[in-house]
Amino acid sequence: MKESTTGRIEVSPGAIASLVSQVVLECYGVVDMASKDLATDLIERLPFDNHRRGVDVHVGDDQIVIHLYVVIEYGTRIITVAKNIQSTVKYYVEKALSVPVAAVNIHVQDLRISAD
Predict the structure, then answer these.
(1) pLDDT of the residue at 5
(2) What domains appear along the chain, each with residue ranges and CATH number?
(3) Which of 32-46, 73-87, 94-108 has the lowest mean pLDDT?
(4) Predicted model pTM
(5) What is the maximal distance between C-alpha atoms in the chain?
(6) How do residues 16-64 score in pLDDT, each as one tens digit?
(7) In this structure, what are the phi and psi dihedrals at residue 109, rounded to the nearest 5 degrees?
(8) pLDDT at position 53, please?
(9) What are the backbone dihedrals phi and psi of residue 15, each rounded to the nearest 5 degrees, phi first?
(10) Dihedrals phi, psi of 90, to nearest 5 degrees
(11) Selection from 108, 75, 103 nearest residue 87 by Cα
(12) Most-buried pick from 18, 56, 68, 92 (CB within 10 A)?
């Protein structure tokens, strides 16, 4: 990802996914992360992969593309929550990695009443 005079720094897509997952779950209106399909859901329910549930990161050509699969709180404005997620994720990833985020794609998988 980053080349310097002392060597190369690489951050794995899994590490980026962990960061993104934490950021998304703190966004207003997000109840949970979801899986993109049933097979992925079964794998992501395993304890060792839970921190990346609902996050798909693609790194290439010195830019990052992120797909998020989220469950949004029923009664909130979906478009407002989704735009907030996009801008928050873009900000934190670019701040942490100094690599541009080309896209943050939001896939709303479900609406749910939060447990609060």
Answers:
(1) 78
(2) 2-112 (3.30.70.1350)
(3) 32-46
(4) 0.84
(5) 52
(6) 999 999 999 999 999 999 887 655 555 555 555 566 789 999 998 889 9
(7) -90, -25
(8) 85
(9) -65, -40
(10) -55, -45
(11) 103
(12) 68
SS (H, E, C) 97-112: HCCCEEEEEEEEEEEE
Given a cut of 70, whether residue 115 has pLDDT beyond it is no
The tokens 């009443």 sit on which residue?
A: 113
Measure CA 95 to chain center: 15
The angle formed by the CA atoms of residues 63, 100 and 95, to the nearest 5 degrees, is 135
* Torsion of Cα atoms, 78 then 80 then 86 then 90, to 10°: -160
Ramachandran class of 83: left when φ > 0, alpha when ψ lies in -120 to 50, beta otherwise: alpha
Burial class (CB in 10 A: 0-12, 13-18, 19+), 60: exposed
